[in-house]
Backbone:
C-alpha cells in the first residue's frame, strides 16, 4: 500500500520514537558484534529518520521503501540536513540492489507489516542474496504479547499542532494480526481535512522466524529486548533479531 496519508503525518505522530537513542543502540550492537557497518541498507526506511541519524554518525547508508509518499518526505528531510542519501522505491520481498552490502537493518516493526509468511520468506531470501558473507541483518518485530495485550482492541487518540488522529485497533487471535485504522484530521488554518489509512500487522513466533532465516542462509546470532542486550521474555513487546550471513 502507498501509506500516502500516513506519510503526511508520520513524523508528527512518532516524535516519541527516539531515533538518536536507537541509532546509538545500533552502533553499540555493531560494536558488540565486532562488525564494521560498511555499506548499509535501511530496509523499509519510511520517512528516513533512522537513515538520516545513521548517516549523521558516518554510516555509508541508503534506504529502500515501497511507499513513494514516504520516500518523498525522506528525500526532502535528507536535503534539509545537507545529506545526499540515495532512496529507492522497492518492495521488501523483491529488492534488487546494484551490488552486495555489509549490513541490512529493518527497524520499527516493518517485518510485521508483511502479513503473509511467504512474503517474509521472500524478504529474508532477498536480503541473504545481497548480503556479503559475514554481514549482518538486524531487524526488530512486535511480539504476540504486544499485539494481544498492548495494541489489542484499543483506541488511541493523538492531538498535535498539525493533526488530530484517531487510531483504532482490532486484534485477531487466530492469526496474531492487528487491523489498524487511522483517521486523520489535518489542520490547515481553521479547516480540518479528513483522510484515512487501513492496514494490518502480524506477529510471528520467534522460533518460526529463526527457522525461516536459517532456510535462507542466515544464522541467528542474537535475540534481544528492545534497546537492550537482555534476553527477551514472555512480556517483551519488541524483539531485536540479529542474523549473520554464514
Residues:
Amino acid at each position: 500500500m502507498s501509506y500516502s496519508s500516513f506519510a503526511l503525518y508520520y513524523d508528527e505522530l512518532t516524535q516519541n520514537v527516539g531515533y538518536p537513542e536507537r541509532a546509538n543502540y545500533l552502533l553499540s550492537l555493531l560494536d558488540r558484534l565486532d562488525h564494521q557497518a560498511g555499506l548499509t541498507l535501511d530496509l523499509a526506511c519510511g520517512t528516513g529518520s533512522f537513515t538520516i541519524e545513521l548517516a549523521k554518525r558516518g554510516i555509508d547508508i541508503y534506504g529502500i521503501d515501497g511507499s513513494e509518499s514516504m520516500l518523498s518526505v525522506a528525500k526532502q528531510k535528507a536535503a534539509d540536513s545537507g545529506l545526499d542519501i540515495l532512496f529507492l522505491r522497492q518492495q521488501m520481498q523483491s529488492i534488487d540492489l546494484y551490488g552486495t552490502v555489509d549490513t541490512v537493518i529493518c527497524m520499527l516493526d516493518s517485518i510485521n507489516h508483511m502479513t503473509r509468511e511467504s512474503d517474509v520468506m521472500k524478504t529474508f531470501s532477498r536480503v541473504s542474496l545481497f548480503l556479503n558473507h559475514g554481514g549482518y541483518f538486524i531487524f526488530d518485530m512486535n511480539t504476540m504479547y504486544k499485539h494481544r495485550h498492548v495494541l489489542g482492541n484499543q483506541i488511541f487518540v493523538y492531538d498535535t499542532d498539525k493533526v488530530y488522529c484517531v487510531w483504532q485497533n482490532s486484534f485477531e487471535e487466530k492469526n496474531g494480526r492487528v487491523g489498524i485504522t487511522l483517521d486523520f484530521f489535518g489542520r490547515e488554518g481553521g479547516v480540518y481535512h479528513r483522510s484515512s489509512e487501513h492496514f494490518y500487522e502480524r506477529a510471528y513466533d520467534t522460533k518460526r522466524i529463526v527457522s525461516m532465516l536459517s532456510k535462507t542462509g542466515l544464522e541467528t546470532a542474537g535475540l534481544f529486548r528492545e534497546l537492550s542486550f537482555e534476553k527477551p521474555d514472555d512480556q517483551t513487546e519488541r524483539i531485536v533479531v540479529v542474523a549473520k550471513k554464514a
About this structure: The mean pLDDT is 95. DSSP finds seven helices and eleven strands in the chain. The radius of gyration is 18 Å. The chain has two domains: 4-143+204-245, 146-201.
